[in-house]
Amino acid sequence: MSQQENTLEHQGLSEFYEKNPKKDVMDIFKAVLESVQNDLKDEELAFILNTLEHYQDQSYFHDLWRIMENQVHTYKQIVEFINQHQDYTNLIKIYLDEKFKLITVVEILAQINNLLETSPFLLKNRYFQKLAIQKTAYAVGDSYDLFIAASMVKAFQVTNQDVDFSKIKEKMLLYSEIALLDELELKNVTLKDIDTYAHISTGNLNEIELKDKKIISKYKIMKVLHELFHTPVVSVGVILQQLSPANREELREVLKNVLRSNISEDNFQHILAAFDDEKGGYHFSQLFAYLSKNADEKLMLSFIKWTAKNLQLDHHYHRALKAYLKSHPRSVWKNKTARKELGMISTSSFRKLVKEVENESASQVVKYFKKYGVQLSSVLFIILVVGSGLYFGYDLLADKKDKESVSKPNKAVASEPAKNINLDLFREWISEEPFVFNVNGQQQKMTFGQANPTGGKSLVLTDSQNIETPYQLMIDSEVSPFDQKGVLKEGFSLYHTEYDFDDNGIPEVVIMALNQTFESFVWVYSPITENGTMSLRSDLALKGMSAVKIVGNTLKVLGEQGQSETYTYLNQQFVKQ
User: Fold this and answer.
1) H helices within 315-415, ranges in order?
2) Which of 149, 379, 550, 577 could form a disulfide with 140 if both were Cys (CB 3.0 to 4.6 A apart)?
3) SS3 35
4) For the segment 179-224, what is each residue's pLDDT rounded down to a tens digit?
């Protein structure tokens, strides 16, 4: 049928459309379609095309298409005819726009498959190609999980075996990858994401054509990340040289996040790379703080032994390790077995370091015994004997009995509440009253002692969803403010406060047990959210001889040796200064 013939026919039908109700027109339209036995006749085709054109700006247009779709054989003929004649391009465009008014990747891929199953010749329609590529890419970028969405595109296959979909799919994958990178937050990338990206990446992104520098940067970093974890390498540093200094710095932050839950002996090189200082060395102080927070004692010990064996250790390493072993709250040095294993490392420089840590971390009594030996033992023996005699009323040095024996301490004094103590930010914690605080606008409630059934040193955190989690106020010390039953000892009072050490908007929780003789026990917890549930991470537990003072990002207390101790909160860790 020529366009001229159709135009003449259309002029004659205009009056028909105007005189007849739309419902009647649709009934006739349906009857014409149903009457077709084999191929459409010219007059039938003309009526169908003219009717579509007449209603193309109205909602009835899509109703007409739905009627045609029910007549599969006729539908294919009409779509093929429209697809081959540019004069009717707008009809197919309006139809396809409606078909691709979808949101999810699953819906769009299913629509592509359905259209190519019934109308395979659409594969050559440029507007169809454009919609298939663009709509898929937009849906990937808008997906909750970018990597799952992109994986669906990778796995997609059309069911019509007569259709060669390969070229369009290549472009769909390419633009889906660009959409993924555009929306990707590198700080949230996991090891699984890195594996998935390697599977879905085309490897064909042209950095010259891509004008968005952020996308190019993410592309390079994701490629290097996969190479780091899945390619046998002699040196991680060699791979990192593929990136610019700015990209390497960004990659190191990504590595820290990725490794946080994937620390193993296989990834020790990657941990080093995450703390590279770009000067041929490493930020060892930050590295040891990071590992102590995210690795257990066994892995921490393995890392120290690994570095002693595989690295050229310099004074920066020794200084940082020495500070960690001596002062860090989670130092493996507190474990006797770990101390023994460290002492078995054979290198002379490491043995020297271990010896220094032993000497400097020993108590004053031990140091004096080492220095004075037997002489000091004799003096202490005499003092003990004389002291015992005085206690029972005898002056052994004068060889006479004292009529008045030394009175014993009055228990009533110890049981009185501590007085004249500057507690600054702290409030006394009455056991019957819960300690209520807020995290991100959500109320949290903490109870102890009589307010919960688990005993004094057992805290119970109740979050905004009424989920209860117990915590023990434990401390690495031979003494405790609690008795064997977990009840706060007579003479001790419990205090609490909230304080934001790192100014991140989420205050840490500080708990202190204190008696009148200024013996103190301090715990610091950070509220964290894991899988939607609020919990507390133990950041510090120490014993002191004074009430603590909080200044800036530091916590100060008088130590057991009579010296002031300062703990600074850095990188979500307390580091002893």
Assistant:
1) 315-327, 336-343, 348-361, 364-372, 374-391, 411-415
2) 149
3) helix
4) 999 999 998 999 899 999 989 988 877 765 677 888 888 998 898 8
